[in-house]
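Incident log entry.

Two folding requests arrived from the same account within the same minute. Monitoring flagged them as a possible duplicate submission, but the sequences differ. Recording both here for audit purposes.

Request one:
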Amino acid sequence: MKHYTRITLLLCLAMFLAPALRAQDEKPLRPVIIPDSYDISIRSVSPLNSSDNDFAPMLLGNGRIMYFTSDREGDQNIYTAMQGGGNWEQVQEAGPELNTSGDEGGTTVTPDGHWMVFTGCDRDDSFGDCDLYIAEYVDGSWRNVKNLGPNVNSPAWDSQPTISPDGLMLFFVSERPGGLGGTDLWMTKRSFGGDWSPAVNLGRTVNTTGDEFAPHIAADNATLYFSSDMHPGIGGQDVYRSKRAGSGWSSPQHLGTPVNSEYDDYFCSLKLNSEDMYFSSNRGSSGGDLDVFLAIPNPLPPGAVTTVIGSVTDSQNGTPIEATLTVRDIQSNEILSSFRSDANDGSYVVVLQPGRTYVITAEAPEYLFYSDRFDVPADSKNNSVRKDVKMTRDLVRLLVYFDFDKATLQPTSAVDLDRAVEWLKANPSVKVELAGHTDNVGAKDYNKKLSRERAQSVLDYLVSKGVAPQRLAAQGFGMEQPITTNDTEEGRAMNRRVEFRVVSR
């Protein structure tokens, strides 16, 4: 690595970066390129940087909190900072739940902020000198720290994790046998609710006989940033971008200058729905220490995503609710991911990929479930949608769809109706009224009859799934009980609904 001797780097970065160093005569010569140059600004993020190594910045989904790694107090530990007044402040250690007398660092957190994977070294339960661990955010602190186990960790050095936005893919760096030389990028997957599979090497398109470091999977779930000292470049560790291509990866693209320099450049982290790219480099220190930098804009950005943000609260008193938010494909009813809202303020973040229609369902004990539909076109741009969820105990609008001017349920209604079935089976003493409503277009008597037939179609579906018919009743109210104006198409759409009302418990 540029401007580091093996001894100096071992002292500075302990075991997180040590495997990157190799004697020059152990590697073939690296191809040198004339890089593309991009018109972007680079600045040091001064509040985060110290006279020692500060690196591996990682932003939480809302962009207000950053985790990074530093050895400013001697040991390598995880630190946090908060965004305030246009700058980073309140820099402090992440706490004893994560940091020990050994070395820690290299964090990655799911967008909702509830699960962190990080590197811990020299622990009693480790398989090698450094392993990957997972922690859960509970009641304002990280708890329940566990080793990710032998499918992920090895007797060799394992570090620098990055988790996909759906929480189902984990990329990391390892020096284990079976690689292509030096340190390689590896990946493990899990099904929804399942265990991590045995890790596999990302292959020769990404990995080389040199050292690959610091992967970062972008929010589009397809773009991977990483660093290498052997792909064609201009110095030691340079930053590259690769994209998933079928079952493999596209040829890495050099991020050019000024992100890459004659120094070591790595540990990218992107802010959701932003052009901001944070990274680490030793370009700004005559002593060779790593600092955190900000590049605006990212010269090779990932694909666009839609970010849904909001809060989940009690509809009556506004109390924050820690709810489970499940993301499903409306066509297949397949669960794609699951997140939680924050117990302290009810906030949540969900990332949606283009080219699908989603249903996001919020569920919490003692409350009715609540669902909303999100259409994300294939050609959509980066977008942030605000959706605050107010949960109730006795009344919710069902997300159901009918053929035009008919009471025939469309297949896409199954997503929410199946949630209703689950809720009724979990609450066997509850009785429910299904109330059909229309807008004010058409004759009053006709609309009342249509709304009654649609409510009956919902009842019939629930019964077909095993709900006792004596627990259900269907009523049609036509245009009599609008919940908003009928003067706009949006208002009329809201008035066309079937409600799920608890009448007794």
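Request two (distinct sequence, not a duplicate):
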Amino acid sequence: MLTILASVAQGESEDFSGNNRWAIINRFENGTFIVGTPAYGYRKDEDGNLIIEETEAEVVRWIFECYLNGMGAYVIAKMLNDHQIPTIRESEKWQDSVVKNILTNPVYEGDALHQRTYTEKQFPFTRKVNYGQMNMYLTKDAHPPIITHEEAEAVRSIMEYRSRTLNMDGKRSQSRYIFSSRIICGDCGSHFRRQKIYIGKPYEKIIWTCHKHVEDKEYCHMKAIREDVLQQAFVDMWNKLYINQGTVLEPLLKALTELAASKPDTEEIEKLDNEIHSLSEQSRILNQVMKKGYMDSALFMEKGNQLAHRLTECRRRKTLLVRRHKRTKEIVRTEQIIGLLKQEGYQREFQEELFNMAVKEIRISLDHEISFCLKNGLVLTEKEGGSEDAVAYTNRV
């Protein structure tokens, strides 16, 4: 009898759990799920919506900036502990795993990713991390962001690079060649393709050739270029940039920042300025009415709280827009390259992952000038087989 009753009780518990799970997933899908415990940097308002906790948000921004500048999660956690920054939910101290979780959590770019963890359907209902066993539900721009999408994307790129470089993920490298779809012909604008010459001989070589030139030599006059020449050109470019980063990247970053700051306000920022002015004026009038005794104190508190809440929201939104306006993609990518230079330093041989992190595409001219278009928009040129002075292209930039 006890066994039968226990089975019935367990069945009822599983049915109840299943109904709750269905309701939660339904809210995931339609974007109405309310988070129980907000992430570090956020708190909930009276309606359950996430709003920014500015003190904690500054710590989050600092963590992202440190990582983009080349620091690792362990070093960041150590610095937080050294500066006695309060931890998440009053833990004893910051851990590198917590810093990594902050860096990879899409909540900080304004998105809500639900079901990152899940509870097993059978007793004892163990909670586990979701590595693909269950569906995840992403809601874009669900709440105010603390960092921009560009900053989050740059952090993910650095993490992926470090993971592959240190062989931490245990995955095989992709079979696709590193220069595939990256080399653009300066004559016809087509892409280069990989070829082998002198196959089976001691002097076998890999070359990259414009595929239009292969089809019609009269249409495109671009000659092939050896892969080892491209690799050496990247190493030379990287080392020159490393030596001259104070001459090239730091002034560039300063100029980009000043340019972003000098741009006129957007239409939305202007609207927010007008609304802030209007709300401030309404609050002033409301206080005067209250002082003259023309309004009940309970009604005054209700109206005053509404105005204060809306005023705070407008100011927060304006601050966010101004910050996003200043943190352009070029600024974030430039900071990322500066961080890579600090981390990787002077190079003696070609690294595929480093190339992949820094370079968007390569353009080759008819006289085989190799121009590396970096991901921050900077273009640096090397001559095939050349070893010019370190400031060769810097002045032209």
